[in-house]
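Listing S7. Sequence submitted for prediction.
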Amino acid sequence: MSQPSLNPVQEWALRYWVYMDRRTQVDDKQAELEIHLQHMWPERWQQLYGTPAGDYGSAFDGEQEIPITDPDDLDRWFQGLDGARSMSSGEFTELLGWSDGEGGIRV
């Protein structure tokens, strides 16, 4: 033990990092268990969350799932994603309703 002890700021930072690391691990395990429950015991999923297993609510903006019968349709859909998702930073700030004032971007 030839090294000095941690100063109060270092000790706080270490405790905070340990806490956040454990919290992240617990959150990841919780998500993993929820997915496992959804697939292995759908009745219990519905009891806990009030929605049928596999129903993600507004996750897909209300779009109905369309079954893929032709693999070429899927290829065309993926090819169309590149053009549909590009925008400049100006378009992005306009979309969010931000305005560029003297002090930088303001919300």
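Caption to Listing S7: primary sequence and predicted structure tokens for the chain studied. Confidence is low (pLDDT under 50) at residues 102-107. The chain is about 60% helix and 5% strand.
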